[in-house]
Amino acid sequence: MALFSLRLKRATSQTTKREPPQIANEQQGAAVEKETGRIEAFSDGVFAVAITLLVFDLKVPQLPSGGIPVTALGMVLLKEWPSYLAFVTSFATIFIMWGGHHHIFKLVYRSSTPFLFANGLLRP
Length: 124
Known about the structure:
This protein is mostly helical. Helix content is 81%, strand content 0%.
């Protein structure tokens, strides 16, 4: 019985010894996030601007001055399908690139000047 209580004390003391390093790792992770946070925010802004610029290519179709039936509106919008397809394709491409960029930054702990320039080449 004494052997069991000794093992229990050792196990309890080991778990309490492990807790402070976990807290230290969490604090270190917060410090790492601050170091790459500016890069991530800038990159997110660049992606947002790129997605916003896609909208400028969409044109408002010319409609007759009088009221038009819903079917005529559908036909006018259907004639613009290449623009809408290009918008959706470009949006999906930028979104996939942003997702990959976000995933890469989960693995990055520090940054350097060469890394900043390499990061600039990855953005759209």
